[in-house]
Amino acid sequence: MLQLSLDGQNDLIDRFSALPGQLRAALAGKADALAQSLYSAVVDDKLSGGVLNNLSGALRNSIRSQVIQQGDQVSASIFSDGSAPYAAIHEYGGKTAAHDILPDKARALALLIGGKMAFARLVHHPGSEIPERSYLRSALDDQDGVITQGFAETLTDLARKLNGG
Are 79 and 136 in contact (CB under 8 A)? Predict the structure, then answer.
């Protein structure tokens, strides 16, 4: 009969048991840091003149960052919270339907036509074609290498720690 003895068996079992928790914690920390970096790229670059100019700040203020840990999964999201109704049409482009523009705070609209002030009770807008001006997807594309490298470095660092290095 063959008998095998392994010195340090209990230590090895403990190290393997701790691995999922350590891996999840390391990846969650990296996901949070990378999400903050991506959030900054969207708000401080793309929505501050890089893709769209900041007029009212409503679109910039609608951008949120969220990291969720659920079971063995960690996910990070950068998104518009919906408070800027034009967020999607700027990101993907699209068409607006013909519609009437009515005053909401006065009895008439004030318009500058040919350098002269004109007033109207309503304006018939013919609709618009809005080009795609991606601020979310383009920021993600810009940071793709940084994100991949960040997770790879996190895994490498954890492997070194587990190997005593």
Answer: yes
